[in-house]
Design a protein that fits this description.
Strand content: under 5%
Distance between the termini: 56 Å
Shape: globular
Number of helices: 11
Largest sheet: none
Number of strands: 0
């Protein structure tokens, strides 16, 4: 009840972000149901398809956690402990709110899936995808509900772990994850080189690459901030560079995941031009890739919103000192250009390496 009351009293921007989480969950749930329907018709090769379907699930969970972090209703405030709303209970409220949004999306996915199969009659587009969704074969109800339950359970548990109260790690630099990120990315490239263009090892290799880039992302963002301040910087570049270095722990990991998505897109385009299109999820491969890309981009934007909320006191101080608003907007543009300049070569390099690994 507490989570529902907090959700009902949230601002429209927060409600829109929750609706986006529900929409991402609906897309992921539909993909999981499609994989189940494919398994009933073609059991051979169902495990690799399930592994590929877990990639949108991971992207949806990451987006849901980012939205929970920016929710003002679950942020600790003064006097909340006296009302019985300590950090632990607020974390539970965030997990419940995430579970509610994901459950709503999965319910919509189930309704749309059954409607397109022709199981729910009386509405437009009834049975429009009978052949693609294999309506001639019965859908296992228990398996369908189990797959759909993966989305809210995984998202809520990950949210609770990410927002749990823990002491701050003093002195931890963003660059500490770069060596581990490079090593894990190299392991992913090795897996792709041995896997070739098919088999369950391909999504495992891409998962390792995404995890490695996510670990190295904070160091990349911090390095971009350092480059902005290089060679006799003025006040504007100092402001942009220091802000980017401060934001690196928040936006670094979503930035690394987005770089992995960009590299995968370039690799898929290169493979399409050489060996034909890669369609591990059949006709839903394109929508699944689009869902992953949108979730990764939305996660990065949501993390940027979180960083902006954390810099509210600094912006208020600068405004009180008479700093023009154009200076703050120009500094934000400089940060975005610096990140773009640092990420484009990384995405291109990883795409080249993955293309070589897959065609080895």
């Amino acid at each position: 009840m507490l989570a529902l009351r907090l959700a009902r009293g949230s601002r429209p921007a927060v409600q829109v972000r929750r609706l986006l989480v529900a929409a991402a969950s609906a897309g992921t749930g539909f993909l999981l149901l499609y994989v189940l329907a494919e398994a009933t018709d073609r059991p051979a090769g169902s495990f690799p398809r399930l592994l590929w379907a877990l990639v949108p699930l991971a992207a949806t969970v990451q987006f849901a956690v980012a939205v929970a972090r920016t929710d003002p209703a679950t942020r600790p405030r003064e006097g909340m402990d006296a009302a019985g709303l300590g950090p632990v209970r607020l974390t539970l409220a965030a997990a419940v709110s995430t579970a509610v949004a994901c459950t709503l999306g999965c319910a919509l996915a189930l309704a749309a899936f059954l409607h397109l199969r022709g199981d729910l009659a009386g509405l437009p587009f009834d049975g429009a995808a009978v052949r693609m969704l294999h309506a001639d074969r019965p859908l296992p109800v228990a398996a369908a509900l189990t797959l759909l339950a993966l989305v809210p359970l995984t998202a809520s548990l990950t949210t609770a772990l990410a927002l749990r109260p823990r002491p701050p790690h003093a002195g931890l630099s963003p660059q500490t994850g770069v060596p581990w990120g490079v090593a894990i990315t190299a392991c992913g490239l090795t897996v792709l080189a041995y896997a070739g263009t098919g088999g369950p090892a391909v999504p495992a290799g891409w998962t390792l690459i995404a995890a490695g880039l996510a670990l190295a992302g904070p160091g990349l963002a911090y390095a971009c901030g350092t480059l902005v301040q290089a060679v006799r910087p003025g006040a504007l570049r100092l402001l942009a560079g220091r802000s980017l270095q401060e934001e690196a722990p928040r936006i670094g990991r979503p930035l690394g995941v987005l770089c992995a998505v960009g590299a995968a897109t370039l690799t898929a385009l290169a493979a399409r031009g050489q060996d034909g299109p890669l369609t591990p999820l059949g006709p839903l491969t394109g929508p699944a890739g689009l869902l992953v890309a949108l979730c990764a981009a939305a996660t990065l934007l949501t993390s940027a919103v979180e960083s902006r909320q954390a810099r509210y006191a600094v912006r208020a101080t600068l405004a009180g000192l008479g700093t023009p608003g154009t200076v703050l907007r120009t500094a934000a543009t400089v940060r975005a250009v610096a990140l773009l300049a640092g990420c484009v070569p990384l995405v291109w390099g990883v795409a080249q390496l993955t293309s070589l690994a897959l065609t080895r």
